[in-house]
Amino acid sequence: MTDTGFATLLKRGVAEVIAEAELLRLLKSGRILTLKQGFDPSAPDIHLGHVVGLRKLRQFQELGHKVILIVGDWTARIGDPSGQSATRPMLSPTEIENNARTYMEQFFKVVDKDKTELRWQSEWFSRFTLDEVIKLTSKFTVAQLLAREDFSKRYNSRNPISLTEMLYPLLQGYDSVAIRADVEFGGIDQKFNCLVGRELQQSVGQAPQQVFLVPLLVGTDGKQKMSKSLHNHIGIAEPPQEIYGKVMSIPDPLIVDYFELVTDVPEEEITEFKKQLKTGSVNPMNLKKRLAHEIVEQFHGKQAAEEAEEHFQGQFQTRELHKIVVTDSIGIKDSIEVILTRDMPRWLVDNKFANSMGEAKRLLVQGAVRIIRPDGTSQVVKGEKATLRPGDKIKVGKLRLAEIVDADKK
Fold it and tell me: Could you tell me if residue 221 is inside a domain?
């Protein structure tokens, strides 16, 4: 790879590299490097925020380097305290195993499965003795851990910090020792944890890993980092129409960041996009269409991207509503009075609002299904039953919309 190629690798989609000069030397040495990234399966599904780091791993794989993805089945029980203002509830092993199964299916939509080694923390931590735990904790002082920003804020505001949370960075750091990592990848909010790994490696005589930190992708709300718990995420396994619609809903100031962090659009084009947005010579809607198409194609293929774009233009730009014809209704006089849906998840699947019962139930739990009445009032569907009437509109997510139509009056 040329110096220009290395510069692009270490600059685009990168927040900080520690230490950049040393990593560049290792890359130029021709040695196959061991690259590490860990994921806590604290909730099912991977979103575009995770993809930022996974895409960088894929780029290193293409240069011949070895990627080890670590499933944090022990750290997930604690929950990453990064950026948290309160202690998280601990997850059960069953919850973690179920979430991990989904993660593993989705990892390889981005990284090359044939060039990836998957490891579980339980390989080493399930054998840890109390003696080893004490040795590990002796490597750091309480003062060092309280220097971490989120811990410091909580300590100064007298919010509780559990001892298990303080173990979190030590456990993540020990992962690097266990696999002898050359480089650890993570979001910029993982800087403290990754540096702990460097120190632990040095304490046992290993060469310290380099730290490759990527920016945090802002979610669809335009305010906070993308997160499933904040419901501002775009899941990579979501239906193409849902991904396309969510991308179209992001605030205009995020357009360039999304192009840089989660697409392969060349730098020259992105630079031109910046100029066009600054001068107002382009409609941001047109750039979002390009962005949405690129992202859907990446995870579902070109045909799915074209169909999602066609659906969006037909349903939202021309204001056409998908019509759901009512046949299971109760007729009273000359009108349809009430329709009672006894199984809302099944109804969502049957009417193509969700691809599976699991997805339908998640939509309901997230409050993503709303009924809009003809008088303009609306309500969120919270349970698995809903009362519907002709003229009602069903809104699922931010963009999918349908109208209930009486079969006798359509």
Answer: no
Of 293, 317, 341, the one marking the end of a domain is 317
Query: Which of 317, 350, 383 represents a domain boundary (last residue)?
Result: 317
Do 270 and 148 belong together in one domain?
Answer: no
8 A C-beta contact, residue 29 and residue 178: no
Tell me how far apart the alpha carbons of residues 366 and 372 are, in angstroms, rounded to a whole number: 17
State pTM to two decimals.
Answer: 0.71
Tens-place pLDDT, residues 282-340: 888 889 999 999 999 999 999 999 998 988 877 655 444 455 444 444 333 333 334 44
Q: What φ, ψ does residue 222 adopt, rounded to 5°?
A: 75, 10
In the chain, the number of structural domains is 3
Residue span of the structural domain in which 50 resides: 3-214
| DSSP states along 189-247 | GGHHHHHHHHHHHHHTTPPPPEEEEEPPPB-TTSSSB--TTTT---BTTS-HHHHHHHH
Q: What CA–CA distance (Å, rounded) separates 315 from 299?
A: 22
Let me know: does 97 contact 71? Beta carbons within 8 Å: no
Tens of pLDDT along 255-291? 999 999 999 999 999 999 999 999 888 888 889 999 9
Task: Compute the distance between CA of residue 185 and CA of residue 190 in angstroms, rounded to an integer.
Answer: 9
Closest by alpha carbon to 52, among 210, 278, 254? Answer: 254
